[in-house]
Amino acid sequence: MYHYNAFDRAFVAERSAQFRAQVERRIDGSLTEKEFKPLRLMNGLYLQLHAYMLRVAIPYGTLNSAQMLQLAMIAERWDKGYGHFTTRQNIQYNWPKLRDVPDILDALAEVGLHAIQTSGNTIRNVTADHFAGAAADEVADPRPMAELIRQWSTDHPEFQFLPRKFKIAVTGSPNDRAVTAAHDIGLRIISRGGDIGYCVLVGGGLGRTPMIGKVLADFVPEADVLPYLESIVAVYNLLGRRDNKYKARIKITVHETGIDEIRRLVEREFTARKVAFTGIDQEWLAGIRAQFAPPVFERDAAAAFNATYAAQPAFRAFVDTNVAEHRQPGYAIVSISLKSHGATPGDATAAQMRVMADLAKTYAHDELRISHEQNVILPHVPKRHLATIHAALHRADLATANIGLISDIIACPGMDYCALATARSIPIAQEIATRFEALKVEHDVGPLKIKISGCINACGHHHVGHIGILGLDRAGAENYQITLGGDGTEDAVIGARAGPGFGAREIVPAVERLVFAYLDLRTSPEETFLDTYRRLGMAPFKAALYGRGEASVNAA
Amino acid sequence: MPRPFTPKVVTASALLEGDVVYMTPDNRWSRYLAEAEVIEYEPHAQIRLLDAEMQPDQVVGPYLADVRFGANGPEPAHFREAFRMKGPSNYAHGKQEQA
Fold first, then answer.
1. Which domains does chain A have, with CATH numbers?
2. What does the alpha-carbon distance between residue B81 and residue A424 come to, in Å, rounded to a whole number?
3. CB-based contact, B93 to chain A, within 8 Å
4. Which of B16, B17, B90 has its CB closest to that of A416?
5. Does A417 touch chain B (CB under 8 A)?
6. Who contacts B9 (Cβ-Cβ below 8 Å, separation ≥6)?
7. How many CB pairs under 8 A join A and B?
8. Which end of chain A has the lower number of beta carbons within 10 A, N or C?
9. Are A523 and A536 in contact (CB under 8 A)?
10. Neighbours of A474 (CB within 10 A)
11. Total domain count, chain B
């Protein structure tokens, strides 16, 4: 993985020192809140419902054990002993005090992390497939390009005041685990006749106007990617609307301007900008790529795995659900669920972070990933260590075998923490998980993605949930709308609204009715919820939710 | 007929901790809604909000929040304010921790 060089270290240290002085000047009254707010947001510091919140970037979700240990130390020393991993592969601390934040930033800098551009109308943390460099289906590791984009976009002088925030995701696999179609720019690495190139999607996004990204260029050679990205952002920077923040994202620009006109403008811009790229970016990329060389894989990595798998049912269940195929024979990818039934999705205690860090360092080539689904991944695990890892995870309440199942729910912080939220998300997720655990049908139901957002901004990706739940304030009460049929993969689809919303007490029974309707409707256990929905459409699910012809009965 | 004025309190976030605070009748900032000044007259509410905005060394983002009268003084009129008064529902953190 990438390690900071002297330039990176000096840059981050300088930014931290600047922020320390800014905090001092805010506290002594030299800066008003109006002056200070953009400065703190540039450093990832929000003011939320109960406290400040610090959002720390985890570039493309990749961490080593030292970084994870530092995140644990910060959680314990300056927060309440835990951190919240988010759908943008970041970590958020919910309780820092203003005076402590400069010290936290210094602690982050010690391990090559920062909170720069985790807020504001800038290019945000670049996200990537959490199985990058390990997935069996991968064309190429997306992280070298993601790191190049991070370096290019960090403090890019032209792009510090964009019309609105700007999110880029990169995948190197045909199975899109990075939701690239729901980003301002999505990059998909593809191979054409042996040549590596990038399919560039633009104008995707969720929020109040959800849109699936459109293909702007189907094959951009690697050497052209950075000038091409710069051209897109430059076109958007001039064309994007600044009169209305709800219409300021590039998805609206693309929608209003038309993809063909955007393509023409980008290509004209590209011609001019390409000449300024003298090849230095490609030299940098080669240097970065060398740092992402695969680990030295061991031989006979699977020794004794099959015998243990056959002998231990709990271990077998964990492997069947939480372990994915690795590109290297004898290796596996382990997904550690941060969704034990009834827990807060995405939260990990400092002790749990230390367990995961120690496992990565001892058994798994010192690498961890944060997934946009709010779980932690050990990407390179010799299968012979899986049983030991499972036992250690079990002791730390981290061995829940539910990856991709109904209780593996994405939930934004919602109104328990977020100042923008219109309703709570976390208790709904907790209740759904505990309800289906009690019913003991989770494994029978099979793959089912529930995603919950506590407001229309859709941080919980509800539009691309097979079952999406959106929490709203309706006449002074929490109310939850259901969408069905969303899909965040390479075949991305925005879910359709099922009908009127449900009150906080009615939403979990409504989800239960949906799931039992699916069990009745499916042709076989192999037909997933999403398959069944696609085959039958909304009608039978709507009937399960509202009763036939009684769509208004449950309306709150 | 103008709509009757809903009683209000001035609330904000404390500058150093970000904690929810309420303005008291004697110009302090209290962590407890029970100690808040309940304002029943709109012009007075605007004046008290201006008073709060003059204290940027202590608080951030003051605003007027609706309350109603309960057995123990003012109570939040909206669930958002109820969460602010108590803390998050997933952990006993925030004000419920200090209570």
1. 6-110 (3.90.480.20), 134-290 (3.30.413.10), 305-395 (3.90.480.20), 410-546 (3.30.413.10)
2. 13
3. yes
4. B90
5. yes
6. B22, B23, B33, B36, B37, B38, B39, B64, B65, B67, B74
7. 72
8. C
9. no
10. 17
11. 1
Distance of alpha carbon A465 from alpha carbon A485, whole angstroms: 7
The one-letter code for the residue type at A545 is L
Asked if B56's CB is within 8 angstroms of A32's CB, the reply is yes
Identify whether the C-beta of residue A508 lies closer than 8 Å to the C-beta of residue A435.
yes
Domain residues for B29? Answer: 8-98
Residues A75-87 have a mean pLDDT of: 98
| Residue B2 placed within a domain | no
User: Which of A26, A416, A476 is facing B88, going by the closest CB pair?
Assistant: A416
B86 touches chain A (CB under 8 A): no
| C-beta atoms of A50 and B89 within 8 A | no
Query: Which alpha helices (H) appear in A244-403, and where do they start and end?
Result: 250-257, 259-274, 280-291, 305-311, 313-322, 350-363, 386-395
Percent of chain A with pLDDT over 90: 97
The closest alpha carbon to A326, from A309, A304, A301, belongs to A301
Q: How far apart are CA B76 and CA A461, in angstroms?
A: 30
A521 touches chain B (CB under 8 A): no
> CB of A455 within 8 A of CB of A505?
no
Instruction: Please state, in angstroms and as integers, the Cα–Cα distance from residue A45 to each residue in A89, A95, A385, following that order.
Output: 17, 11, 39
Is residue B13 a part of any domain in this protein? yes
CB of B84 within 8 Å of any CB in chain A? yes
**Nearest-neighbour CA in chain B from A407: distance (Å):** 16
Helix/strand/coil for A403? coil
Which residues are within 8 A (CB) of A158 and not within 5 positions of it... i.e. 6 or more apart?
A: A233, A234, A237
CB A337 within 8 A of CB A400: yes
Whether B2 and chain A come into contact, CB under 8 Å, resolves to: no
DSSP category for residue A154: T
Q: pLDDT tens digits, residue range A10-69?
A: 999 999 999 999 999 999 999 999 999 999 999 999 999 999 999 999 999 999 999 999
Give ipTM to 2 decimals. Answer: 0.96
One-letter amino acid identity for A467?
A: I
pTM summary value? 0.96
